[in-house]
């Protein structure tokens, strides 16, 4: 659950929307993900089932260098069997109540080795709100200093690539960048006039 969404608030919102929870059980849990199964009654009165994927808060960061280049990572995504172009992003499953800014700076350094001296909040987003509780915070990182990446063992295949902004945008147009979080974060940053 994200820092600013509490279980009580979510439950109250469900009830206000007309949902009734008949039962709830934890179906699966690992350090990154929990799956809960709720038996519910929809506002229409029909009985149903909701599988809810619970994941921690994440941060996604668009690093922009002084010359206007953007840094992206590329990594293999096991569930779909493809390497994807993405902004640096992630969550810390071993730390609770981490501020979004701390998470963003940590993920940026961990995956790319970049240290941001300026971090600008650009919005929030939900990843898969139809099935998941995971909330993300979007940041623009500037005034970057390049250092050594501090990747976890599971991130050893990550490669970092700097490219001009127009090349990045062209990759989106051509369908070469398909990570929805990266595209949504870019849209928020662009819509706010930050780039």
TrEMBL record:
Superkingdom as given in the UniProt entry: Bacteria
The UniProt record lists the keyword Hydrolase: yes
Record keywords: Hydrolase
Domain Nudix hydrolase stretches: 54-185
One function term, GO molecular function aspect: hydrolase activity
Reactions catalysed, as given in the entry: GDP-alpha-D-mannose + H2O = alpha-D-mannose 1-phosphate + GMP + 2 H(+)
Keyword Isomerase on entry: no
Gene3D superfamilies documented for this protein: Nucleoside Triphosphate Pyrophosphohydrolase
InterPro entries, A to Z: NUDIX_hydrolase-like_dom_sf, NUDIX_hydrolase_dom
Pfam families: NUDIX
GO BP, sorted A to Z: nucleoside phosphate metabolic process; ribose phosphate metabolic process
Cofactors, names only: Mg(2+)
Family: Belongs to the Nudix hydrolase family. NudK subfamily.
UniProt-recorded name of the protein: GDP-mannose pyrophosphatase
Organism: Aristophania vespae
